[in-house]
Batch of 3 targets.
Target 1
Amino acid sequence: MAIIYQNMYGWILDHWQLTADSFEDVDSEDSTVTNFSYKKDMFEINSQFIMDSQFESKIHVQERVEDTIVNRKKRKRKSVLNDGEIKAKTYHDKIIEVIVHAYKTLLDGSKDMKLFRDLGKSLDNNVAARKIAANSGPGDKLRELCYTDISDLDIETVTLKSHGVYDDLCNKLVKNCSFPIKVKIKDDFYLLPAECSFIMGDTENLKYFSTILGRNKFDFILLDPPWENKSVKRKKQYWTLDNKELFKIPVSELSAPGCVIGVWVTNKMKQNDFVIQELFPFWNVDFITTWYWIKVTKTGSTVLDIMSEHKKTYEILILGKCKHTEMKDVSDEKIDSNTEEEHTKNDICKNMKCKENLSEKINSKSLDGICNESTILPASLNNDICNESTILPASLNNDNLPLEMTMMSVPSSIHSMKIPLQDIMKPYLPETPNCLEIFARNLTPGWCCYGNEVFKHQHMDYFEVFTKDT
């Protein structure tokens, strides 16, 4: 199970432990069974994210790395903020109290569990984690295997076998059995979790699979789009997708009544606005709330300055619920502006009300010493924080997803690897939910996943053998 602690404001997750639980007793070629997990070094995030040159400089001026930056001066901005920057700053200022308060309560409530440790002088700028990220995995191989031309709509279904060898799994519905297995696909080996299913295909082909996946079937649909980014586009670091392509995803056809929709976005306001104001109305989805994933080191410190208005230590998950009416024709180039404006206004009002209610619970004095320019993370917690560690989020139905929740974990060093959500979402879905992830890069036990790199993070480079007593 990924959840190792929770309170009324959120959860602390152990991503590594979930993979260890998911890949027990994998059949080996010699007829023995082996336990696998993600490599622990992938999660050896011991210090904040900084450049090597910055790290070396910091070592020279400090006897040991503390949680605050010494003699840090705020750069003066030479130009006036534009409208977009003002909007982003206003949004950040609004949500940061919620995030900081949740972060503190999670750390304070779990301190007796000793989930985080003092690494002393052993900090090394996350060398082991960065090495795995730079030298592991299939690269772009899987995306290069995908093709978009589907001439035969009679989609083939493939049931995998342990130690099977497969050449072409593109545009096929692939299913695994009730236990985790190791298979060879093309020239590489992969570990696949139990009872997973997937389709490796481009986004534009998803419309062909809505029938075979099951019309009105899914109770939870999660999307992690490869959002366009000017820096990424310029450096050609990875594949991105035009926002317009997201309108082609047949959400209404795939979703069951009351289906919860989750969309990961970066911290760019344009993406947030696009999802809430354009994409959700087009999909006939009502915006419900926003959750935050805050990334921390093995010491419990945030990986970036928690108060920074530029690089953020958190990512955003936007959640909504399908109204389950007919989706608009994809050929519509423009959503009715009056309807969109009214819909957005109602959603924003609802969310602001949620934030105001939660802010009433925050004692601003408890933020003293943490919310200042020089702070990366608190070395210790204030004593005046309210003790709410025994209060858990109510197991509500999906009409009442808890609002403004925070998820906290040590992140993987692998690009685009998100935290697992199955344990978090379980109380808010049917007893045996059907879940679909679109733009998936790893497989989830019991879920169906779709994407052109759908099992990328199942590559054997990311795994190692482990024993339960280690």
Target 2
Amino acid sequence: MGLDQISHAYLCYCIGLDQISHAYLCYCIGLDQISHAGGTLGIWNGEEVVVKTSKYKVVAMAQLLWRYGMDIYNIQNWVQTELMNDFMKIYDIQAGGHAYTSVTDLLAAMNPKFVDYLSITIKDLMKKEGYSDKFINEMVMGALRTNYGQTTDVPAFVGVVSMAGVDDGLWSVKGGNKKVPELLVKHAKANVIEGEVKVVRLVEEDPPLYEIDYKCKNCASVNEIKTREYDILVVAKPLHPDINSIKFEGFTTEIKNFPHKYHVLTTTMIKGSPNATYFGLNSPDDFPTELLTGSDKIHFNSIGKQKSVNDVDGTSVYKVFTNTPLDKEKVKTYFNSEDDLRMVFWRSYPEYDFKADSLPPFVLHDKIYYVNAIELAASAMEMSVLSAKNVALLAHHHWTGNLDKIDEPFDVKGAADKTEL
């Protein structure tokens, strides 16, 4: 889901606050919010816009009910009961100091069925739950293509996370969501060293001592390599052959890249006017705020009108997600005018075509931890944050010898016994 929108729970959790009102939260931390509610939704099947909602919520719900029947109503309750109610348990679990060495154990702590969701497709699960092919092929497919660039053949867990990602209550931080990590660094009073890690070397085994060779970003010499020693390491980037260049040296048990592939996405930002005629609409004003696609045979995944990070109206900027780059002809097909265009290629999230037993661990070696292991279950900001908290708890417990809260069941009654980090 990237950094486009952000949930209230995520920001509260990042800065250590309980669930409080949006307005009071922003007041406390000095950040303003921009609501993303009130937009319109369309779904394109390659030939026509099969559904386009009104900006008025009641009318939009009636239109979706007409198209999908009770599926559109039931999905809200289903996501809440199947995912959110149990997902929210993680905040109490981690507030109680509990940590897990595997992704499956962490998911099982919230609800064991989450592990089962890693081994069944979202399409098969929703068919089992009674949802229609039309709803699955249009609405669920559309959500997955805009959130993950993939289809309803992905595992059910990431599929349900994707459906939660189209919730109407999402919002962004005024000035850009980058302010959240900037705020976290400031609150942590961390010593940030700007550089590219090249080598991780095991110097001593028991207790472990590590050397880090890194290319210094702000040094006089561009290629200058510096070395620092650490007792605990946290790897916070995908260990994938096309992404990772870090070498691990001196380990008796080899630490190597994991074989999972990452999905290559093209994000194209276009300042201009969409071609309403091509999409069968009367004018650019009729173009939906978010246009999803219901087939992987369509070149683009979604087209969404963007809000300014400073919440200033007046500029029409659209974000186009595609799995392959847009060429000039495609841009001319989808847009009448193009005043500015920016294109970014990036490995955005994993290809979700694997089983639960192939997920990477959170612990790579004694006191080396891997935050990105969680991405193989589902990639989202909330997932990264709870993974980071889990790793912080693991490091704390391993360092202090408090091992009774690692890989142990969570006791609801004992939740008041918290480990603060």
Target 3
Amino acid sequence: MHNISGELYTLDISSNMFSNDVLVSSNEANMLISVNKNPHARSKVYLGKALIVKHYNAEDLYMHDIDKIKDEILLLKQLNHKGVSNLLSTFVSGTNIAYVMPFMECGSCQDLVESEFPTGLPECWIFLIVKNLLEVLNFIHMNGIIHRSIKARHILLNRYGGVKLTGFRYAIKKPSDNGGTVYEFPYDSIPNLKWLSPEILQQSGIGYTEKSDVYSLGMTICELANGIPPFENLEPKKLLLQKISGAIPLIFDSSTHLKFESSIKYLSIPPEQLEVYSTRAISANLHSLKNNCCISNFDERPTVDELMNNEIFVESDEFSLTPSVLPLIEFKKMEDIGDVESLEWNF
């Protein structure tokens, strides 16, 4: 499936409009779909009161894209977990396919990094996000699903620190045979190459399991901590060689600055940002957690369950956001967005 981007618009949508599981064409649905400022966009996301309506025009999509949308809708209907961005409803209006999801006030972690934290999120927040992600991954893995697209863009937050995982259009159900090993290479993986595990990228006869999501989680920890994705300066072939050779991306801080400065010299990073990287101190716990997730050999890589039992998470029942971060959580409140402002949103 293509890397579908969308736009956000505020609408006064009553939740009772979506009370049925599937709604056929109606005046209300047609009105909703008609608010389209960019007819060439492949998808639209409309904001209402605590709702997001994601809209696709089937005429703009290939058949395999439509099949992916169907698969995602069916999958989300089956996954009942607080950490999964659940479907409230779906409906069809003419050639338009739409589904309704809860509104997450903070948007995605990528939104937060790009708008407020160019050098990475506060460490306490990263631990909070990772702990929640591990619970979600444990749930979907127990249901035989490999996500295959763990990254900051697919992690949504609300003002209360709630975390929801999206991006299930890239997910795959494990086969009942072959010990649950998957051999299919995701044809729509180009947007996710930096986060994919070596065993997926190699396309060898070994295949891959749910441990590939653990590797992607490690890449995401780097992304959240640094404010930029790992291997950002590498073209696909060099990226593959680095991963196969066992290269582990770094979290940028005073303990790693002699190594990371050469690897990011081709990126346009402001001097003041580099100064933050080279002088700050990231905890050994976060470095260790990332390193364990990013082990190239999947046989040696820990499972989600093993990570959940790590003393980092066991010692504290609940992580919380620091007071300095709490005000930021409300930066996307509905009343602040306005009637005409549009925002980029891709999940």
